[in-house]
Design brief:
Layout lengths: L1 H12 L2 H14 L2 H24 L20 H17 L2 H21 L4 H25 L4 H18 L4 H21 L1 E2 L4 H21 L7 H25 L4 E2 L3 H4 L2
Helix pairs in contact: 1-5, 2-3, 2-9, 2-10, 3-4, 3-6, 3-8, 4-5, 4-6, 7-8, 8-10, 9-10
């Protein structure tokens, strides 16, 4: 029974939609900047893992004469957990969260060793890759803060498109970067959502966003599975998270707009 619970928990922690749901809720109710950075970390981490797995010829797991496993490839779930939860350690700066994040990373690594037939070196490389992704994002944040907004917007268009051309199999995650980057740029420049102080309004905005997200996800089943449509579909998901839902929540009065007359009168 404990082993079943552990397997089910691990399955939840490695599910892409679990991470996207957390990212969306953070963006809509807690902190837009952190939510966007988590979206970038999620997209880049999974994209890099898929790209390396596609380009490095090491598909089979085999045992050596010594009984140890041959190096296969860093497991996606460990790399993503290390990058995603690890990024929040300096952002939250709380010992309890640090312990929780390390526990999640350790748990994911342990389950990967137990069920995924991974070696210790696979786990170590995955954790190092996750740390590298976090480093890239932090360095990018420093760069973004020092360049004009038009350059940032152009970069949010060029980078995802280049990633799509480089590795079409990563279209889902390149699309998320495109939609998220473009949406966040417009959110900062034009929409400028600020969170309501009322908890029920935050909950209503989150519920509205999740319903819309489910409808967009369902839309994929109606589309043909081509690379371009996958790219555009996930770009729409990124736009929904970073721009469309914030715009809708302002229209519905669930959140406010910075600089608006109504907000200034509060």
């Amino acid at each position: 029974m404990f082993m079943d619970w552990m397997a089910n928990t691990a399955a939840l922690l490695i599910n892409d939609w679990f991470y996207l749901t957390i990212i969306a809720l953070v963006f809509w109710t807690i902190d837009k900047n952190i939510g966007f950075n988590l979206l970038v970390i999620f997209s880049i981490s999974v994209y890099i893992n898929g790209f390396l797995q596609f380009t490095i010829p090491s598909a089979e797991t085999s045992e050596l004469s010594s009984g140890s496993f041959e190096f296969i490839f860093p497991p996606k779930e460990v790399q993503l957990a290390s990058a995603f939860w690890g990024f929040l350690i300096p952002e939250i700066s709380d010992r309890r969260y640090t312990a929780l994040a390390c526990s999640i990373i350790f748990f994911t690594s342990f389950v990967s060793l137990l069920y995924g037939e991974r070696s210790i070196q696979d786990i170590i490389v995955a954790i190092l890759l996750g740390i590298f992704v976090v480093y890239i994002v932090y360095r990018s944040m420093d760069w973004i803060g020092s360049v004009p907004e038009p350059i940032i917007f152009s970069f949010s268009l060029v980078l995802p498109s280049s990633l799509l051309l480089l590795f079409p199999e990563g279209a889902h995650y390149a699309g998320l970067l495109l939609g998220g980057g473009v949406g966040y740029s417009f959110e900062l420049i034009k929409n400028r959502m600020i969170f309501s102080k009322h908890l029920w309004k935050k909950a209503a905005a989150a519920a509205t966003g999740l319903v819309g997200l489910l409808l967009i996800v369902y839309l994929e089943s109606l589309l043909s599975q081509t690379t371009l449509l996958q790219f555009l579909h996930t770009a729409f998901i990124g736009l929904w998270i970073t721009l469309l839902l914030p715009m809708l929540s302002i229209k519905l009065g669930l959140h406010e707009q910075a600089g608006s007359i109504r907000n200034n009168n509060l």
